[in-house]
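Hi D.,

Good news: the full-assembly prediction came through. Inputs first.
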Amino acid sequence: MHNATISSLAAELASRRLSSVELTRHFLHRIKQLNERYNCFVTLDEARSLQQAQAADGLRAEGRAGPLTGIPLAQKDIFCARGWRTTCASKMLSNFVSPYDAHVVEQFNAAGAVILGKTNMDEFAMGSSNENSCFGPVRNPWKEDAVPGGSSGGSAVAVAARLAPGATATDTGGSIRQPAALTGICGLKPTYGVVSRYGMIAFASSLDQGGPMARTAGDLALMLNVMAGFDARDSTSLEREREDYTRGLGQSIRGMKVGLPREFFAEGASAAVTKAVDAAITELRKLGCETVEVSLPNMKLSVPVYYVLAPAEASSNLARYDGVRYGYRAPDYADLTDMYKKTRAQGFGAEVKRRILIGTYVLSHGYYDAYYIQAQKVRRLIARDFAEAFKACDVIMGPTSPTTAFRIGEKAGDPVQMYLSDIYTIAVNLAGLPGMSIPCGLDGDGLPVGLQIIGNYFAEARMLNVAHQYQQATDWHMRMPPGIQ
Amino acid sequence: MKWETVIGIETHAQLSTKSKIFSGAATAFGAAPNTQACAVDIALPGVLPVANREAVAKAVRFGLAVGASINRRSIFARKNYFYPDLPKGYQISQYETPIVQGGALAIFVDGAEKIVRLTRAHLEEDAGKSLHEGFHDFTGIDLNRAGTPLLEIVSEPDLRSAQEAVAYARGLHALVRWIDICDGNMQEGSFRCDANVSVRPAGSDTLGTRSEIKNLNSFRFLERAIEFEVRRQIEIIEDGGTIVQETRLYDAGRDETRSMRTKEDAHDYRYFPDPDLLPLSVEQAWVEEIRSAMPELPQAKRSAFVALGLSPYQAGVLTASRELAEYSAAAFAGAAAPAELANWITGALSARLNDEGLDITASRITPAQLRALAARISDGTLSGKMAREVFDAVWAGEGDPDAIIAKRGLKQISDSSELEKICDEVIAGNARQVEDYRSGKDKAFNSLVGQVMKATRGKANPQQVSEILKRRLAG
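Then the structure:
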């Protein structure tokens, strides 16, 4: 049951051979058995989950069920959910129980989906290994001393270890795609503005975007159908007609032009990653795709640009965690300033503090023009590179991450090496484009490799179809981590 | 040495919208602490701001009223600093590109008009309030005010005295109320001023170092604070000292300004465009829609009153508020002598309203009644004294002036044959006074007029009486 896709589980539920309560119990049971090993869930509330499952079964009995009614899903602990502790994996919010639902949560609730629990992540989504969590690191089911990637490591592992058929996640610089790649699952970061950020705890507002994680492209489409849509409470939410992302899934991809950016294949990626990605491209050619070389000359600047802009926004977004109104407050302090200092020194982890300091610095008087303004200019150049490239192709492909999963602790002491783990994903966020990662092979150690598919604005349906066609022809997405039955 | 004072004023006008500038919470004043603060206002994790269209419309309205240019695209920026009553750790304001740029306000000082240039006006949110009273060892935070829309209006340093500063503040206060964007309630903090004050040797064209006096919430405090500050600065310079750029607070109790912080410990606010809000775009068509819904402005109303024969001073007084101007205009409609009517409004009516603590909108005499009253004076029906009596009767609710005149039989006797008869009787019955008058004692004449008035029980037209008496006594 836990190895089934969302779409097949939905069919089971629709045929009444299975109830949501049974399904939810099954996953809760697996989580109870295996979460200690992977540490991917940080908050569970069995009673609440089962209550939702019961309600979903009720909806079905009344004939009011939708495609996802009764499907249990994991929620990244960055999404506020009413009555659920919502921590962003930070000590700062370790006691915060949200009084309201994020738009995404609201949408899933309205669709009758069940919240299985809240998943671990890098604190405030800052990290690429899920080691920066006040709940401790998440372990990769493919190799337990390896990281699952981050920041959505908990959601990725929940799906990879078959503890949930799907999960929500967020992506600011690669936080959906990189962990999806490192755990052998599928993840999609939609066009900026497609999924409302309301109730999604902000890291870097101009880059953050929520999206789904699941095991097939078809499942991503089902989830995106629920997550996407205009929300007046988010001023950056885009007002456009609702799309059915599953509709184009059967289309032929014959003649589709796949752009291969020179810069993605030049250097940086490990041999095993390049080999698997090359093989995937060959497979797509067999399916009728044409390939064309394109160039993203400014892509090499995306990591430095990102590490100016994202911390700048974060330094301001995280200012609200001051111990005054909610969340953690230092137990002993002399006065107001001391309370602020101690609360923030004790409540935030090292990486979050590092980024707050960087962000504060680049926004400071005298440095703002040289860093922030300059970075915004380069950001526009990067977006222009993509616009140029898309004149010659329909989708862009390349590796998601330069390496497969690395060992826990391996890069923890070297932030720059860690940041370079997102070298292929960050430019997509800077340009606001949709990007996804699907499994396309295993390296010599049996660790998954991800293929990144980047589309033009609002090309999610097209990207999902390419991925779907690829998955019809290959079985990398069906591979199970060793030790999972 | 002679010194020149240079003043620029920053005004925070609270925009009278129903809901807050970036959330749906209500803005009403005086509710129990934290009952009008929603998730957005208390800055829960994950919440986002959405700009209030009504607040933007009011800012546009202001821009149009002062002849400013409305930026089609303005930017909300974050002003970052930590304070317990600032829930997000930043204030959303407009920094580099405000919605309103330029413009001017005409003020009147000692009867002369002066044009004060405006630099800009921008939208921003208010902070909450720290409550120190009633708490022991800690401070309470009330976030009801957090997120209330403000329009910060910045003048150029065009003001040269405390009197001019007050005239400017009053003019601005009248204007924002006139165009209905701010209730102007200064006690509740809906309209408050910061004054940037510096002095320089008369004739110099470089600006001296300024100090900024914060949060002046009455015109009197504004005036006193500036006067104190000017004296303080001149004294320092004349004693050989220099002025340091600083922020000062006015202590009304001691009537002095005190240093709050100097430039050295000023914040670095780390402004940057708010990524949660798209650039604020104002379509020209919408601006025109707002323009077409604008009331006639004070300036235009003043000119219209002057054209009716009012003095510029009268016109200025009657356009101090939109309500007063509307009352006056209604009274002037079809009036034979608007200037005389204006005297009634600025005189008797204002005095009565003042005595009873009423606003012009609560006047117990309508514009039409006042006009009718004035008409009965100019057509000779009423004497000034009678008019006051009728005014009081209308005020007391006895009906329209004509009805009261008829009921009380207050008509002046203007029939000359009847008056001549009475005058003759008075002359005949007061031989001594007549003699006195003829021998040059003017006082005796007044006594004769008094006798006639007494005989007619005050209904005679005194002017007519004196004419008849003079004629008869000369004969």
